Amino acid sequence: MSKITQYSTIGALMSGHFAGDFSVKSTHSPTLFGLGCSCGISGELTVCGGEFWEATAGESLHQLDDRQLPFLQVTDFVAENSLKATGINDKNLEHRLSEQLAINNIFLAVNVKSRFDEVVIRRPQRDESQTRTVQEMSDSQQVDTHHNIAGQLIGFWTPALFGRISVPGFHFHFLSDDRKISGHVLSFTAANAVVDYQVKHSIEINNPTSEAYNTLDIDVAQLDQLISHVEK
Ligand SMILES: [Zn+2]
Question: Which reaction does it catalyse (predicted)?
């Protein structure tokens, strides 16, 4: 699978469609790579080597068996291009990659491996009721800063043109090498890192098929602001 496959869109998720509509139990590819969230946005998901890791505030990192998910963005990742980078961080990665190829209009799958000087990650609280709003979910998230930690950033570069389908710019989730720490990346710095990436020419969007999705009120005018506020 050289394409990116997506279940739902960041626009639907940020409009409050947190229901786990998609079963991805059949996805067994050993090179499956990507990110998502679990039902009710109870956890940030990182997909690495076909394994699904769920990071939830107040819980140890664990693999997810029940894969009924509201949002998932995955691909089969092959490190077709590699960049050895020094002094890299969330602010200059775009520029560093732009020196390699023009990225403004294309999708990339990106994997950054390092012993990071600092990684700031965010994890949601579990919500058994699955009735909270986007704002309630956002307000309850826990932010943690980790120093001198070996691991990888797993995610995608999405051009602004597609910013209501996926998070525009970089969207990374972190996974530590010891499989103890994970979450949505807010910032990172690394003195030395290997940045592997693969251009993705195609993206497949699978919309939810439920009546709840069909009748979901999506305020497109507010959406860009909301995505920027909650996901950046
Ligand atoms: Zn995320």
Answer: (2S)-2-acetolactate + H(+) = (R)-acetoin + CO2
Share of the chain above pLDDT 90, in %: 78
The span from the CA of 132 to the CA of 116, in Å, is 34
Domain ranges of the chain: 4-231
CA of 230 to the centre of ligand 1 (A): 9
Question: pLDDT for 27-84, tens place per residue?
Answer: 668 889 999 999 889 999 999 998 999 999 999 999 987 678 999 999 999 999 999 9
Å from CA of 179 to ligand 1 middle = 17
Name residues with Cβ closer than 5 Å to ligand 1, which is an ion. Answer: 184
CATH architecture of the domain 4-231 equals: 2-Layer Sandwich (3.30)
In the reported structure, the alpha carbon of residue 184 is separated from the centroid of ligand 1 by a whole-number distance in angstroms of: 4
